Amino acid sequence: MIPSMNFSMSVKSCMRLCTSNTKVFANQCQSICTSGTVCHQPAGANLKTRQAEMMAKGLPKKKAIVGVKHILLVASGKGGVGKSTTAVNVAAALKAEDDSKEVGLLDADVYGPSVPLMMNLDDSPLLDDNNLMIPLQNYGIKCMSMGFLVNKDSPVIWRGLMVMQALDRLLRQVAWGPVDYLVVDTPPGTGDTHLSLIQNVPVSGVLLVTTPQTAALQVTQRGANMFKKLDIPIIGIIQNMSSVECPNCQNHVKLQSHSAKTLMHEIDVPVLGDIPLDNAISEGADTGTPVIISSPDSPQAMAYKTVAKEVVKYLNEKELTSCH
Fold first, then answer.
1. Using one digit for the tens of pLDDT, what is the confidence trace for 138-183?
2. How far is 301 from 21, CA to CA, in rounded Å?
3. Strand partners for 305
4. 222 closest CA partner among 194, 193, 189, 257
5. Contact at 8 Å (CB) between 164 and 196?
6. Cβ of 278: how many Cβ atoms within 10 Å?
7. Number of Cα atoms under 13 Å in the Cβ half of residue 188
8. Are residues 97 and 220 in contact, defined by beta-carbon separation less than 8 angstroms?
């Protein structure tokens, strides 16, 4: 309820009463709080504050995962662009660049988990003394996936609420720590999984994966706009399957006239790497041996390592900025 007041209107000074208990006189407002205090602020600033407060109501509070330093989302608007393969190889590249760092890989695609196959893991996780699941490990990377908890031939036929509960368990009921980089392989699109992650955990940054086709670039741009609206930093774009290498002359042949560089300028985000369409990368994903592991000095592996270096550089600069 708005307290009763006597006031007058003039030609030079207009006033309106809004639902936020605010009197607005041209560019100045008087906010009447419950304690009876009158504060003077610019009308725009007061409105933005009220909007932020209203948006925050009912939303979960972000809570860090115990023992996890940085959370990196690997996302794509379109399916089939090689996002999971990229997530696995980026995680492996982060470990290869600095073996002293602990790296985790979370498969957040509850309906279509790929990490068990791509990391050659098919056991069920054990529980520690605190009743937390112990991540399975391969190549020095801690992994967790819904694929470890269900039969590989069994479909997950769940509604959204059950998926969110499962995701929360994969985040909170796993003995992750210590982990310096937790790479999260998200499902395609901009749905419940992404919103749940963004609202519940502090995300250090997002890697957007796309192919050079117009359809993929357009959907990736929608995903980028979602992250920007939610104030989630985008580290960069990874352009996947953009070229093939000629087996005779070893020259790279572009597969599309379009490029992620166009998207880069539109959303003001750098392209971190160009990953070719290559048989070694595909076979590595199918056999559970990432190309970073099978051919660490190959051009394909070096492309992922370049991305990893850019990610580490971004996170280090972010830490320095936050310290100042």
1. 999 999 999 999 888 888 888 878 888 999 999 999 999 899 999 9
2. 60
3. none
4. 189
5. yes
6. 18
7. 13
8. no
Collapsed DSSP state (helix, strand, coil) of residue 10? coil
Phi, psi at 304, each rounded to 5°: -70, -35
Buried residues in 256-268 as b, exposed as e (16+ CB within 10 A): eebebeebbeebe
Of 82, 86, 78, the closest CA to residue 219 belongs to 78
The pTM assigned to this predicted structure is 0.80
From residue 279, how far is each of 138, 285, 290 by CA, in Å?
22, 10, 12
In the three-class reduction of DSSP (H, G, I as helix; E, B as strand; rest coil), residue 271 is classed as strand
Pairing of strands 179-185, 243-245: unpaired
CA distance 63 to 265: 33
Beta strand 141-145 with 103-107 is parallel
CA distance 85 to 118: 7
Distance CA(140)–CA(159), nearest Å, equals: 34
* Residue whose entry in the numeric block shows the structure tokens 């809570």: 63
